[in-house]
Amino acid sequence: MELTSVQKEKSIYPKYTWLIVISELCERFTYFGLKSVLILYLTRILQFNGEESTIIYHSFIFLACIMPLPSAILGDSYWGKFKTIMYLSFFYVLGCLVLTGGSIADMFGLDVQKFYHIFLP
């Protein structure tokens, strides 16, 4: 009986596992949510033409697909997997906050919003 009570108390997963799972869930939710409305936002709100919005859209998809490669290099060679996830999650959240702030700022003109969305992640 003691063995089963000890096994129940000790988790088989490290503490950081739940942080990684929640971080990935939020990252996927943000990626697919942003991907689905990005063209509409670029064409209707920021008033980019079709060619510019297509270039920005495909650049976003390309960067989202290529970023795991430098992240893996950082994680495997320098920081380790947990520090890499923590540090890069911070920049991901910061980019989402800048994007959200730029999209809801009524006091800024349309040109300032375009600047924020092109040059800041």
Question: Any idea what the radius of gyration is?
Answer: 20 Å
- The CA-CA distance between the termini, in Å, is 55 Å
Number of strands: 0
- Total helices: the number is 6
Could you report the average pLDDT, rounded to the nearest whole number?
Answer: 77
The residue ranges in which pLDDT falls below 50 over 5 or more consecutive positions are none
What is the strand content? under 5%
Computed structural class: mainly alpha
Large-scale geometry: elongated
Largest sheet: none
> SSE order in H/E notation?
HHHHHH
Features:
121 residues; mainly alpha; 83% helix
How is this fold's topology laid out?
Elements: H1 2-9, H2 16-45, H3 50-66, H4 68-79, H5 81-104, H6 110-119
Helix pairs in contact: 2-3, 2-5, 4-5, 5-6
Please provide a written account of the structure:
With 121 residues, the chain is mostly helical. The chain has six helices and no strands. The longest helix has 30 residues, at 16-45. The mean pLDDT is 77.
Structure described in brief:
InterPro entries: MFS_trans_sf. Helix content is 83%, strand content 0%.
